[in-house]
């Protein structure tokens, strides 16, 4: 350990330099560990069973299916319109409900707008749990609960939306300057009045931004929710895939791509103006 | 304070022009359109709204069924299937890294001709727009309903995101070191090794970890189409309405996802922000 004497006469001990050799050894250990885990994940029985000989056997059969993707069955289009509309309906409804529920919850989950540690912590823990489950798993369970159709899909998307919007917006509230909130509190406002008159207008552009972002995610998600029976294009995907009609699947994928690109660019244009 | 008090004698102040209120018609129009779309969606969707009234009671009943006495006997199988899902996520991430890292250099400005660069960027965004579960449906005709299909689908999706993040990171690298290596006569590979990599390595490592977190969630979902793993197990037990087992599976998904996110998040923070600053010992 070397020592340094500062201008005002204090003696400071400088911690030892990180030694190069140790770091190199550490890096190699990390690389070997990654390789070992990768080998384990690829292993038969234990891992994903990467059996390439079966792939070689299926190749000819599969290749013709994949070639079918290149020639979409345009005549199938009329049958896709209704599921496509349902997909968009689910996305819009879920985003609307999710946004309405999320705004008060975001204020609840942020420190400046909810000083009570316990209620804030409880909501955050609950939302961390909600966020840990992907929306398709929610949909799979909800379909068994409330039956096939758009309703389980919408509920699954709302759960997903609330998890994301509340997290992002409450982080934004906590990162914002607390001056206006303090001023409103000093002027005698109750926490509720302060939140309504200061925090809400302040966070509104960010909140709308996240809502649009969630709409983009919902359009992607609602296109496949039907695979578990939750309505929309996914139901159709499930049907055509069981008949191996990859030319029809190709048309559906194309429609998803067009819708996703249109919604994404519209939403991106609006979001650029918001922020 | 009156206006007269500030008026300099002998001069008449012109009246202050109040600027016109900013026009609000754009935002009003936008909100009207949004409200119309939402109302239209609610009005036209085919949902049995009557079912909604006993939904809360139903959900409470099912939550009770799932969690009041979970079948812990299924825990070992659930953990094994979770391991398979995580293995799928890991293998998919590794494959994606191997493919995407060289490609992101090709897609970055300054390493390949513009047509190649643009074509590659188009490919990345095309891949990102297709949900992984659809990629899996496409490739399962070749690979069959095995976890390998899941890993390959995640790898394809991973190439889309890692490729994009990669070239953005490479383009964000400061130009100084790159110019210095070029000026010293370095070849392209030397420019990458000594000019680009030292600056972008932390970002790359953190992207890889982040993509692994995404893949852990996605791999659970891929099980739904039958490629194995926790999602596969979850669909079969929900179809048989074995709620106590479904409860166990959901608990396992939540615990595993939150733990992996926490571990990977801590690693990413350590990589991006460095070690916590240590105070010099005062003597």
Compile the SSE list and pairings.
The complex is a heterodimer of chains A (275) and B (283).
Chain A: E1 2-5, E2 11-14, H1 20-42, H2 52-68, H3 77-109, H4 117-132, H5 135-146, H6 150-175, H7 179-186, H8 191-225, H9 233-242, H10 246-274
Antiparallel strand pairs in A: 1-2
Chain B: H1 3-6, H2 25-44, H3 49-53, H4 55-67, H5 75-107, H6 114-129, H7 132-143, H8 147-171, H9 175-183, H10 188-222, H11 230-239, H12 243-273, E1 281-282
Helix pairs in contact in B: 4-12, 5-8, 5-10, 5-12, 6-8, 7-8, 8-10, 9-10, 10-12, 11-12
Describe the structure.
The complex is a heterodimer of chains A (275) and B (283). Chain A is mainly alpha-helical and 275 residues long. Chain A has helices at 20-42, 52-68, 77-109, 117-132, 135-146, 150-175, 179-186, 191-225, 233-242, 246-274; strands at 2-5, 11-14. Chain A has 2 domains: 2-50; 74-274, MetI-like fold (Orthogonal Bundle). A two-stranded antiparallel sheet of chain A has the order 1-2. In chain A, strand 1 (2-5) and strand 2 form a beta hairpin. Chain B is an all-alpha fold and 283 residues long. Chain B has one domain: MetI-like (MetI-like fold, Orthogonal Bundle). Chain B has helices at residues 3-6, 25-44, 49-53, 55-67, 75-107, 114-129, 132-143, 147-171, 175-183, 188-222, 230-239, 243-273, and one strand spanning 281-282. The longest helix of chain B is centred in the last third of the chain and has 35 residues, at 188-222. Chain B is extended, with a radius of gyration of 29 Å. The N and C termini of chain B lie far apart (62 Å). Classes of the chains: A mainly alpha (275), B mainly alpha (283). The interface between A and B is large, with 73 and 66 residues.
């Amino acid at each position: 350990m070397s020592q340094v004497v500062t201008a005002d006469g204090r003696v400071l001990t400088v911690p030892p330099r990180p030694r190069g050799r140790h770091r190199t050894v550490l890096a190699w250990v990390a690389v070997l560990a990654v390789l070992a885990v990768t080998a384990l994940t690829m292993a038969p029985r234990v891992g994903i069973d990467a059996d390439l000989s079966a792939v070689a056997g299926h190749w000819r059969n599969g290749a013709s299916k994949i070639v079918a993707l290149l020639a979409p069955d345009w005549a199938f289009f009329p049958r896709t319109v209704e599921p496509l509309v349902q997909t968009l309906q689910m996305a819009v409804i879920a985003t609307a409900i999710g946004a309405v529920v999320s705004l008060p919850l975001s204020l609840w989950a942020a420190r400046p707008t909810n000083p009570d540690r316990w209620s804030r912590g409880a909501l955050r823990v609950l939302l961390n749990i909600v966020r840990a489950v992907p929306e398709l798993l929610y949909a799979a369970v909800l379909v068994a609960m409330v039956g096939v159709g758009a309703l389980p899909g919408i509920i699954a998307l709302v759960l997903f939306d609330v998890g994301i919007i509340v997290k992002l917006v409450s982080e934004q509230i906590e990162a914002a300057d607390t001056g206006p909130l303090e001023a409103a509190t000093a002027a005698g406002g109750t926490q509720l009045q302060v939140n309504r008159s200061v925090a809400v207008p302040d966070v509104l552009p960010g909140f709308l931004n996240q809502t649009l972002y969630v709409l983009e995610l919902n359009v992607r998600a609602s296109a496949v929710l039907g695979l578990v029976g939750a309505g929309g294009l996914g139901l159709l995907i499930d049907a055509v895939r069981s008949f191996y009609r990859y030319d029809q699947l190709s048309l559906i994928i194309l429609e998803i791509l067009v819708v996703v690109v249109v919604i994404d660019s519209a939403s991106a244009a609006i979001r650029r103006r918001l922020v | 304070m009156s206006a007269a008090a500030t008026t300099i004698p002998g001069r008449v102040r012109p009246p202050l022009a109040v600027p016109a209120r900013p026009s609000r018609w754009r935002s009003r129009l936008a909100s009207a359109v949004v409200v119309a779309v939402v109302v239209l969606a609610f009005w036209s969707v085919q949902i049995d709204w009557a079912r909604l009234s006993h939904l809360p009671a139903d959900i409470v009943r099912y939550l009770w069924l799932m969690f009041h006495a979970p079948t812990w006997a299924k825990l070992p199988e659930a953990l094994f299937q979770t391991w398979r899902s995580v293995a799928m996520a890991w293998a998919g991430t590794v494959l994606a890294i191997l493919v995407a890292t060289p490609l992101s250099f090709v897609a970055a400005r300054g390493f390949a001709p513009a047509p190649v660069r643009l074509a590659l960027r188009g490919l990345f965004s095309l891949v990102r727009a297709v949900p992984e579960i659809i990629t899996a449906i496409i490739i399962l005709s070749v690979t069959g309903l095995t976890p390998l299909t899941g890993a390959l689908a995640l790898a394809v999706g991973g190439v889309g995101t890692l490729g994009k993040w990669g070239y953005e990171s490479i383009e964000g690298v400061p130009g100084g070191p790159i110019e210095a290596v070029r000026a010293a006569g370095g070849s392209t590979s030397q420019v990458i090794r000594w000019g680009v990599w030292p600056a972008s390595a932390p970002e790359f490592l953190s992207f890889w970890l982040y993509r692994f977190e995404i893949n852990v969630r996605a791999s659970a979902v891929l099980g739904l189409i039958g490629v194995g793993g926790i999602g596969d197990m979850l669909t079969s037990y929900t179809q048989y309405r074995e709620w106590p087992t479904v409860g166990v599976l959901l608990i396992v998904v939540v615990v595993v996802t939150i733990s992996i996110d926490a571990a990977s998040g801590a690693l990413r923070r350590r990589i991006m922000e460095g070690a916590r600053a240590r105070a010099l010992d005062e003597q």
